[in-house]
């Protein structure tokens, strides 16, 4: 078992955003979390990565490779973030630093955990791996010089450069057209084929149908249904899941 979340509750002041959320994730598995906007999908990812705003309160347990992430110090978390658990954000333009070239940003992520040796070679390698053809140009570009699709590929490259066991992806295809969306999803499928896992948040059942092994349906901070992708599509149990599928 790679990840086991039990009775996860999240509070922003008196507001309870997540309500006793429980699920697990195996190695080499893609689990999609679906639900309408405001259901708490992204809050699950931010709770796992411990990237919540100041004042947020978390209850329950989040066990990654047997460690309860909620009990780790910030120093211990820094050793895990990027190396063992990485994050692909919804809007790459907000994540990439506009003042630094792409190559230096990938190398920085690598050096932080793996050391200086081979950082440039690894940056080139991971750019090719995410399907970028003109590697030299992208490596030497600033973020504003790249298209949205290329920037998202770069973010996946940064998330993958240390070969983490788990990638957390927060609606990574939302702003992309259908062609680019398909190519990004193929990168996650490749991650699975390499024996690593993806926890992906989306509101798009088309994305779910294309890459998910299992699905977690979230409504108002609660899990209302969980199952393999075939069961969810062919025989949904909960009325909320049925409505989401009918909205396609």
Automatic annotation (TrEMBL):
SUPFAM superfamilies: P-loop containing nucleoside triphosphate hydrolases. GO terms for molecular function: ATP binding; ATP hydrolysis activity. The keyword Protein transport does not apply. Residues 3-245 form the ABC transporter domain. One of its GO terms (cellular component) is plasma membrane. Transmembrane segments: none annotated. Its main location: membrane. It is a peripheral membrane protein. It comes from the Bacteria. InterPro entries: AAA+_ATPase (IPR003593), ABC_Ni/Peptide_Import (IPR050388), ABC_transporter-like_ATP-bd (IPR003439), P-loop_NTPase (IPR027417). Keywords: ATP-binding, Cell membrane, Membrane, Nucleotide-binding, Transport. The keyword Nucleotide-binding applies. It is found in: Cell inner membrane. Belongs to the ABC transporter superfamily. This is Peptide/nickel transport system ATP-binding protein. It comes from Thermocrinis minervae. The lineage of its organism: Bacteria, Pseudomonadati, Aquificota, Aquificia, Aquificales.
């Amino acid at each position: 078992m790679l990840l086991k979340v039990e009775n996860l509750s999240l509070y922003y002041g008196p507001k309870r955003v997540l309500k006793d959320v429980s699920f697990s994730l195996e190695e080499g598995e893609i689990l999609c979390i679906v639900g309408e906007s405001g259901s708490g999908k992204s809050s699950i990812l931010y709770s796992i990565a411990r990237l919540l705003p100041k004042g947020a309160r978390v209850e329950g347990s989040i066990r990654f490779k047997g460690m309860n992430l909620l009990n780790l110090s910030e120093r211990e978390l820094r050793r895990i973030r990027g190396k063992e658990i990485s994050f692909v954000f919804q809007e790459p333009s907000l994540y990439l630093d506009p003042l630094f070239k792409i190559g230096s940003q990938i190398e920085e992520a690598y050096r932080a955990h793996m050391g200086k040796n081979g950082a440039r070679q690894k940056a080139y390698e991971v750019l090719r791996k995410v399907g970028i053809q003109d590697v030299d140009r992208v490596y030497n570009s600033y973020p504003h010089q790249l298209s949205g699709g290329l920037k998202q590929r770069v973010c996946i490259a940064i998330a993958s450069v240390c070969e983490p066991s788990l990638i957390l992806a927060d609606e990574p295809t939302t702003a992309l057209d259908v062609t680019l969306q398909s190519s990004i999803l193929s990168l996650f499928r490749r991650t699975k084929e390499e024996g690593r896992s993806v926890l992906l948040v989306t509101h798009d059942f088309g994305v779910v149908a294309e890459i998910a092994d299992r699905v977690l349906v979230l409504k108002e901070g609660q899990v209302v249904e969980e199952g393999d992708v075939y069961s969810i599509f062919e025989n949904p149990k909960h009325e909320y899941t049925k409505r989401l599928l009918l909205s396609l």
